[in-house]
Amino acid sequence: MKILGIETSCDETAAAVVEDGVRICSNQIASQVEIHARYGGIVPEVASRQHILAIIPILKQAMAEAKTTWDELDGIAVTIGPGLAGSLLVGVSVAKAIALAHGLPIIGVNHLEGHIYANWLTNSIPSFPLVCLIVSGGHSDLVLMKGHGDYVILGRTRDDAAGEAFDKAARILGLGYPGGPAIEQAARAGTASIQLPRAWLKGSSGFSFSGVKTALLRLVEGGKVSSQADAAASFQEAVVDVLVTKTVAVAKECRVKQILLVGGVASNEVLRKRLAENSPIPVLVPEPVLCTDNAAMIAVCGYYHFQAGKIDGLDLDVVPSLKLA
Ligand code: KG4
Ligand code: ZN
Fold first, then answer.
1. pLDDT-flagged residues of the chain (< 70)
2. How far is CA 92 from CA 5, 18, 200, 224, 302, in A?
3. Distance, CA 262 to ligand 1 centroid (Å)?
């Protein structure tokens, strides 16, 4: 069974074909990073217009790479939220047009659920129950998953998401956009020698990253940061320390079989390594290109919806503030 996935929730225009929920036949991504970098962040209006320009070429490339014809597809999975309304609309409109033209079923997918399902594309199939740490530009959630589509939110961020904190810290340090990869790169040349606060929020499985970001800003404003690399390493260390410690504690408490690390921040090498080293419970992490936004994760998630009979109609609409549970 071949599912075409379409993802346009933020600043990546992506299309992919996945077979039987496990084999990636194609995975095409057109990034808008360079366009938004000059503004220091994503400009929603610019993002939607770019998606309109990129979506058809990307779809054609995904179909060509997969050596698949429209008739060989079994369904179309598309991100309906959460994300930028104008950006989501491009993907959903194109998905509906293809579904109508070729008589294919359409499946609306939650972007965060897509991030989780990227793990079904790794070498080992996840075992339930499991705990997911979703760390992206908009989310830092700890989620208990007892089965397909069964989510209980155990904790989320009270303020900035982890990726957002990386982006803001990079701006404070003059490292540019997107901040996560820039901080990771700069940190390689430094040591985590600057003490930055950690918000442990005792008794809660939630997160808070605005304090560490403000502490960094005060140090920079006060002229107390002499090494950009040390500041980047110290910031990364503070965020990774909290994410890893709280995730392992929650996973032990819930007695789960596995931990899944997902979302754009999961491509961070230090976070991947530290979680694997510090967790007595097996950790699954998709390869970096499947952690940041892509359409293969949407296709595999759509496959599992399809198997469960969860198919949508052509009245499918975008839900910019869609929740996982
Ligand atoms: O999942 P994603 O690609 O898009 C959203 O759904 O938000 O995540 C993007 C976020 C950005 O904030 C970016 O700075 C962060 O993931 N990110 C990283 C790294 N690569 C991307 N954060 C830390 N280290 C990285 N290597
Ligand atoms: Zn994402």
1. none
2. 11, 18, 39, 48, 14
3. 10
Is the preceding omega at residue 286 within 30 degrees of 0, hence cis? no
pLDDT of residue 267: 98
The answer to whether the beta carbons of residues 134 and 260 sit under 8 Å apart is no
Q: Is the dihedral of CA 298, 208, 42, 222 positive or negative?
A: negative
Q: Which amino acid is at 62?
A: A
| Ligand 1 pocket mutation pick from 265, 270, 272 by most atoms within 8 angstroms of CB | 265
Integer Cα distance of 162 and 82 in angstroms: 17
Residue 253 tokens, joined: 């408490």
Please state the atom number of ligand 1 nearest to the C-alpha of residue 267: 26
CB-facing half-sphere around the CA of 80: CA atoms within 13 A: 21
Q: Which SS3 state, helix, strand or coil, does residue 209 take?
A: coil
* CB within 8 Å of 156: residues ≥ 6 apart: 139, 140, 141, 142, 206, 207
Write down the pTM of the prediction. 0.97
Residues 6+ apart with CB under 8 A from 20: 1, 303
Ligand nearest to the CA of 188: 1
**Which residues have CB under 8 Å from 276's CB, separation 6+?**
283, 285
